[in-house]
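haha ok so turns out i had the wrong file open the whole time. this is the CORRECT one, sorry everyone. sequence first:
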Amino acid sequence: MVLLAHVGLAQGRGLGLGLMIGEPTGISCKGWVTNSGAIQLGIGWPSTSHTGGTAIAAEYLWHSHVFRSRESFPLSYGLGAIFGVSNATNTFGARGAFGIAWWPRGSSIDIFLELNPTLYFRPSSTFEFDFGFGARYFF
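then structure:
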């Protein structure tokens, strides 16, 4: 908890917890480590293209404020991995992350959309485009 509290205070946006749909569908967590860098975690159920079970995804994200407006729409990009466990097989993948978020002015939430090109290492390697869509509340 001390480590997570430190991560949350590093940027002033705190630690975010919420829900996401995609790969995986479940709980999303994001903690800031610098003014523009954050660690994002997701845990839940894999999409229907996989064999069920549980999946854990983690990425390091960099953020860039390209769009200037009264609202904040940062772009994010990063690298990470996904690991899935099921009765049939275990899966590991290296993945990228490209996304956009909306941080409503004066609010403690973010709404995000992300595309994750992923190279899965199963019994045979496959390349897939995963996605994530969700919202988090920042403490």
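The longest strand covers residues 125-138.
again sry for the mixup
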